[in-house]
Amino acid sequence: MGRKWNNIKEKKASKDANTSRIYAKFGRVIYVAAKQGEPDPELNQSLKFVLERAKTYNVPKAIIDRAIDKAKGASDETYDELRYEGFGPNGSMIIVDALTNNVNRTAAEVRAAFNKNGGNMGVSGSVSYMFDATAVVGLEGKNVEEVLEILMEADVDVRDILEEEESVIVYGEPDQFHAIQEAFKNAGVTEFSVAELTMLAQSDVSLPEDGQAKFEKLIDTLEDLEDVQQVYHNVELG
Fold first, then answer.
1. CB distance 226 to 28 below 8 Å
2. pLDDT band for position 11 (50/70/90)?
3. CA dist 95 to 1, 12, 152, 234, 237, Å?
4. pLDDT tens track for 201-214
5. Cβ neighbourhood burial of 183 (10 Å; 0-12, 13-18, 19+)
């Protein structure tokens, strides 16, 4: 499983050079989380999760505050959460999560991205059964044994703990996300290198060179769509 997270992280790092796009997406998801509940993260677990994740992407405080202030105000802008599933080149599998105020527009744009880049849309459930919803929390400055001891003392049982480059990555059930973070915070950890609720493929596939080039173009096209928040896949990127 650790190889999968490194795979995602490396791709994420290359794409996130486009910070304005990332910040815009976070502004939207923070607004939605704050609008759907209390605009206080201590009273709104969804907002708290989004803000923890935003910190790992270095989203400026001004953008966070602006989104929360918008939610506190008179704005009646509403968004729908959508999930699309499909196939890329060579039978690769892709999940696309979107947040949109125009369902028809988003569906058309996602479908066009697949069709123009060697892929095709699937029906609901055609791909997601090969992925596991997973909480991923990473931290630096501790080894696997220290992390395991912290989690055991907090009585938090997780799926796996792996050392990856300079971080220790903890994989758990989605509903353990906050418990894992709280265990580390109580042990004095103040920052996380990773804080994600993600979809991890049960197994990765490799593509031939030409197939990988087509696949990366498809992923780039999907990620560049304004309404798309997350793209998950099962391809080992080279």
1. no
2. very low
3. 18, 15, 33, 9, 16
4. 999 999 988 888 89
5. buried
- Angle, nearest 10°, between helix axes 144-153 and 177-186? 100
Domain range list for the chain: 2-72, 80-129+203-233, 131-201
Continuous segment of H or E residues that includes residue 82 = strand 80-87
Maximum separation of any 2 CA atoms in the chain, in Å: 52
Q: What is the CATH number of domain 131-201?
A: 3.30.70.980
Look at residue 133 in the predicted model and tell me its pLDDT: 96
Positive or negative: CA dihedral 106, 112, 114, 117: negative
Superfamily of structural domain 80-129+203-233? YebC, transcriptional regulation domain (3.30.70.980)
> How is residue 166 written in tokens?
């300079």
Kindly state the helix (H) or strand (E) to which residue 31 belongs, with its residue range. helix 19-36
Q: Which CATH superfamily is domain 2-72 in?
A: Integrase, N-terminal zinc-binding domain (1.10.10.200)
The pLDDT value recorded for residue 154 is 95
Give the C-alpha separation, 237 to 88, whole Å: 14
Domains 2-72 and 131-201 share a fold: no
